[in-house]
Amino acid sequence: MNEKQPATLEASPEQLLYARILEIGMYIGLLVLFVTFGLYAFGIVDPYIPLDEISNYWSMNVNDYLEHTEIKAGWAWLGMLKYGDFINFIGVAILAGVTIICYAAIVPTLLKNNDKVYAILAVLEVIILSAAASGILAVGH
Predict the structure, then answer these.
(1) Taking CA 11 as the corner, what is the angle to CA 10 and CA 17, rounded to the nearest 5 degrees?
(2) Would you say the pTM of this structure is higher than 0.90?
């Protein structure tokens, strides 16, 4: 008879490493979001767009909003971190970028375990996500 091996529910070392880095990155990103939102909400850091004017922009599409406020698209927010309404992008960037760090971190473990196909896929994932984040693959706007 065909006897099947019971499926194991234990996570592999690379899965545990990925999860550990993801958890740490998530907590750091969340903490940064809370702190930077506090800086913005309590008026500790002045916003680019005053709070009493922000509702004027809610009905605008993105192109009109960017044109009217003279905000540049893409990574231009890095130059605007002195404003309270842009400083919170740091936490968003951390949360968005932690996946790249996770994939990069598991490559040595995959290679050590001779999982070449998964290692190649992880490297490709790092390259694609990094290219997408950089704006190289941007289409449109």
Answers:
(1) 150
(2) no
CA-based radius of gyration for the chain: 21
CA distances, 38 to each of 30, 33, 46, 53, 84 (Å): 12, 8, 12, 19, 9
Give the model confidence (pLDDT) of 80-132 as tens digits: 999 999 999 999 999 999 999 999 999 999 999 999 999 999 999 999 999 98
Give the sign of the dihedral formed by CA 62, CA 65, CA 66, CA 71: negative
- Tell me the domain boundaries of the chain: 13-134
Contact by Cβ (8 Å): 89, 77: yes
